[in-house]
Amino acid sequence: MSMQGWIVRSFGGPEVMQWADLPTPSPGPGQLLVRVHASGINFAETRMRAGTYSGQELPFVMGMESAGVIEAVGRDVSGFAVGDRVFGRARGSHATHVLIDALHTLPLPATLDFVQGAAIPVGWLTAWHALYTIANARAGEDQAAGLGGRIRLHRAGEPQGARSRGGDLLRSSAVELEVDHSIG
Protein backbone atom coordinates (compact mmCIF):
# COMPACT_ATOMS: atom_id res chain seq x y z
CA MET A 1 0.00 0.00 0.00
CA SER A 2 1.34 3.45 -0.81
CA MET A 3 0.49 6.89 0.50
CA GLN A 4 1.23 10.42 -0.62
CA GLY A 5 2.70 13.39 1.19
CA TRP A 6 4.43 16.77 0.86
CA ILE A 7 8.11 15.81 0.92
CA VAL A 8 11.09 18.17 1.12
CA ARG A 9 14.37 16.84 -0.28
CA SER A 10 16.31 20.14 -0.28
CA PHE A 11 15.92 23.31 1.77
CA GLY A 12 14.38 26.41 0.20
CA GLY A 13 11.09 28.15 -0.52
CA PRO A 14 7.67 26.59 -1.18
CA GLU A 15 8.91 25.32 -4.55
CA VAL A 16 10.97 22.59 -2.79
CA MET A 17 7.82 20.84 -1.54
CA GLN A 18 6.75 17.95 -3.76
CA TRP A 19 3.54 15.90 -3.55
CA ALA A 20 4.99 12.41 -3.88
CA ASP A 21 4.16 8.72 -3.55
CA LEU A 22 5.68 7.25 -0.39
CA PRO A 23 5.60 3.85 1.27
CA THR A 24 2.88 3.58 3.91
CA PRO A 25 4.54 2.86 7.25
CA SER A 26 3.38 0.19 9.69
CA PRO A 27 2.86 1.21 13.30
CA GLY A 28 5.50 0.07 15.75
CA PRO A 29 5.02 -0.40 19.48
CA GLY A 30 3.06 2.49 20.97
CA GLN A 31 2.12 3.94 17.57
CA LEU A 32 -1.06 4.46 15.54
CA LEU A 33 -1.37 4.64 11.76
CA VAL A 34 -3.86 7.43 11.05
CA ARG A 35 -5.51 8.23 7.71
CA VAL A 36 -5.26 12.02 7.68
CA HIS A 37 -8.46 13.97 7.00
CA ALA A 38 -6.97 17.40 7.91
CA SER A 39 -3.59 18.77 8.94
CA GLY A 40 -2.57 22.07 10.53
CA ILE A 41 0.02 24.50 9.22
CA ASN A 42 2.48 26.22 11.57
CA PHE A 43 5.21 28.83 11.35
CA ALA A 44 7.87 26.30 12.41
CA GLU A 45 7.24 24.41 9.18
CA THR A 46 8.39 27.37 7.10
CA ARG A 47 11.65 27.29 9.05
CA MET A 48 11.96 23.50 8.63
CA ARG A 49 11.47 23.84 4.88
CA ALA A 50 14.00 26.69 4.71
CA GLY A 51 16.59 24.75 6.74
CA THR A 52 16.66 27.19 9.67
CA TYR A 53 14.88 24.93 12.19
CA SER A 54 17.40 23.36 14.55
CA GLY A 55 18.13 19.71 13.81
CA GLN A 56 15.88 19.31 10.77
CA GLU A 57 17.32 16.65 8.47
CA LEU A 58 16.50 15.86 4.86
CA PRO A 59 14.40 14.41 3.41
CA PHE A 60 11.25 14.90 5.50
CA VAL A 61 7.49 15.03 5.06
CA MET A 62 5.97 18.37 6.07
CA GLY A 63 3.44 18.72 8.87
CA MET A 64 3.30 18.62 12.66
CA GLU A 65 -0.37 18.09 13.58
CA SER A 66 -3.36 16.32 12.12
CA ALA A 67 -6.75 14.71 12.66
CA GLY A 68 -8.11 11.58 11.06
CA VAL A 69 -9.21 7.98 11.52
CA ILE A 70 -7.07 5.16 12.91
CA GLU A 71 -6.30 2.47 10.31
CA ALA A 72 -3.87 0.33 12.35
CA VAL A 73 -2.83 0.04 15.99
CA GLY A 74 0.69 -0.91 17.08
CA ARG A 75 1.67 -3.25 19.88
CA ASP A 76 1.32 -2.03 23.47
CA VAL A 77 -1.37 0.53 22.62
CA SER A 78 -4.53 0.59 24.70
CA GLY A 79 -7.52 2.90 24.58
CA PHE A 80 -7.54 3.23 20.77
CA ALA A 81 -9.05 1.05 18.04
CA VAL A 82 -9.23 0.93 14.25
CA GLY A 83 -11.94 3.37 13.13
CA ASP A 84 -11.52 5.82 16.04
CA ARG A 85 -11.53 9.54 15.17
CA VAL A 86 -8.40 11.12 16.67
CA PHE A 87 -6.14 14.17 16.58
CA GLY A 88 -2.51 14.45 17.52
CA ARG A 89 0.96 15.83 17.07
CA ALA A 90 3.40 14.08 14.73
CA ARG A 91 5.98 15.05 12.16
CA GLY A 92 4.90 14.10 8.64
CA SER A 93 1.25 15.09 9.06
CA HIS A 94 0.90 16.71 5.61
CA ALA A 95 0.27 13.33 4.02
CA THR A 96 -2.54 10.88 3.42
CA HIS A 97 -1.28 8.79 6.39
CA VAL A 98 0.88 9.49 9.42
CA LEU A 99 2.32 7.49 12.31
CA ILE A 100 1.43 9.12 15.63
CA ASP A 101 2.68 8.01 19.03
CA ALA A 102 -0.36 7.01 21.06
CA LEU A 103 0.92 9.25 23.87
CA HIS A 104 0.58 12.26 21.53
CA THR A 105 -2.94 11.34 20.39
CA LEU A 106 -6.38 12.14 21.77
CA PRO A 107 -9.89 11.04 20.76
CA LEU A 108 -11.56 13.65 18.55
CA PRO A 109 -14.81 14.70 20.25
CA ALA A 110 -17.97 14.33 18.16
CA THR A 111 -18.52 18.09 18.56
CA LEU A 112 -15.35 18.86 16.53
CA ASP A 113 -14.72 18.22 12.85
CA PHE A 114 -11.36 17.09 11.47
CA VAL A 115 -10.26 20.61 10.53
CA GLN A 116 -10.91 21.87 14.05
CA GLY A 117 -9.11 18.87 15.56
CA ALA A 118 -6.06 19.38 13.34
CA ALA A 119 -5.75 22.99 14.53
CA ILE A 120 -5.37 22.05 18.21
CA PRO A 121 -2.17 20.06 18.96
CA VAL A 122 0.71 22.48 18.30
CA GLY A 123 -1.08 25.63 19.51
CA TRP A 124 -2.27 23.88 22.65
CA LEU A 125 1.19 22.44 23.34
CA THR A 126 2.78 25.87 22.82
CA ALA A 127 0.39 27.45 25.34
CA TRP A 128 0.89 24.55 27.79
CA HIS A 129 4.68 24.89 27.49
CA ALA A 130 4.48 28.65 28.09
CA LEU A 131 2.30 28.21 31.18
CA TYR A 132 3.86 25.19 32.84
CA THR A 133 7.48 25.09 31.67
CA ILE A 134 8.28 28.78 31.21
CA ALA A 135 5.88 30.53 33.64
CA ASN A 136 6.06 27.60 36.09
CA ALA A 137 2.27 27.75 36.74
CA ARG A 138 1.16 26.18 40.01
CA ALA A 139 -2.19 25.48 41.67
CA GLY A 140 -3.84 28.65 42.99
CA GLU A 141 -1.92 31.05 40.73
CA ASP A 142 -3.27 33.27 37.96
CA GLN A 143 -1.22 33.04 34.76
CA ALA A 144 -1.43 34.58 31.32
CA ALA A 145 0.23 33.60 28.05
CA GLY A 146 0.04 34.98 24.53
CA LEU A 147 -0.61 32.86 21.46
CA GLY A 148 -1.80 34.75 18.38
CA GLY A 149 -3.96 36.90 20.66
CA ARG A 150 -4.54 36.52 24.38
CA ILE A 151 -5.04 33.34 26.33
CA ARG A 152 -5.95 33.74 29.95
CA LEU A 153 -5.73 30.90 32.46
CA HIS A 154 -8.26 31.34 35.23
CA ARG A 155 -7.41 30.58 38.81
CA ALA A 156 -6.25 26.99 39.07
CA GLY A 157 -8.79 24.52 40.37
CA GLU A 158 -11.80 25.91 38.47
CA PRO A 159 -13.68 23.63 36.01
CA GLN A 160 -12.14 22.78 32.65
CA GLY A 161 -13.53 24.22 29.41
CA ALA A 162 -12.84 26.85 26.79
CA ARG A 163 -14.87 29.47 24.95
CA SER A 164 -14.02 32.31 22.60
CA ARG A 165 -15.02 35.94 23.06
CA GLY A 166 -14.61 38.98 20.89
CA GLY A 167 -14.70 37.49 17.41
CA ASP A 168 -14.59 34.43 15.25
CA LEU A 169 -11.83 32.14 16.55
CA LEU A 170 -10.84 30.98 13.07
CA ARG A 171 -10.76 34.42 11.43
CA SER A 172 -9.48 36.83 14.08
CA SER A 173 -6.00 37.00 15.54
CA ALA A 174 -7.31 39.42 18.16
CA VAL A 175 -9.50 36.80 19.80
CA GLU A 176 -9.37 36.20 23.53
CA LEU A 177 -9.72 32.69 24.88
CA GLU A 178 -10.68 32.07 28.45
CA VAL A 179 -9.29 28.71 29.50
CA ASP A 180 -10.26 27.22 32.81
CA HIS A 181 -7.85 24.45 33.70
CA SER A 182 -7.28 22.55 36.89
CA ILE A 183 -3.62 22.42 37.91
CA GLY A 184 -2.26 19.82 40.28
How are the strands ordered across the major sheet? 7-3-5-6-8
Number of separate domains: 2
Give the biggest sheet. 5 strands, antiparallel
How does the helix and strand content classify structurally? alpha+beta
Please render the helix and strand layout as text:
Blueprint: E1 2-8, E2 17-23, E3 31-39, H1 43-50, E4 60-61, E5 65-73, E6 85-89, E7 97-101, E8 105-107, H2 114-118, H3 121-134, E9 143-146, E10 150-153, E11 161-165, E12 176-180
Parallel strand pairs: 10-12
Antiparallel strand pairs: 1-2, 1-4, 3-5, 3-7, 5-6, 6-8, 9-10, 11-12
What does this structure look like?
- This protein is α+β, with helices and mostly antiparallel strands and 184 residues long.
- It is built from three helices and twelve strands.
- It is globular and about 50 Å long.
- The protein starts with a strand and ends with a strand.
- The C terminus is likely disordered.
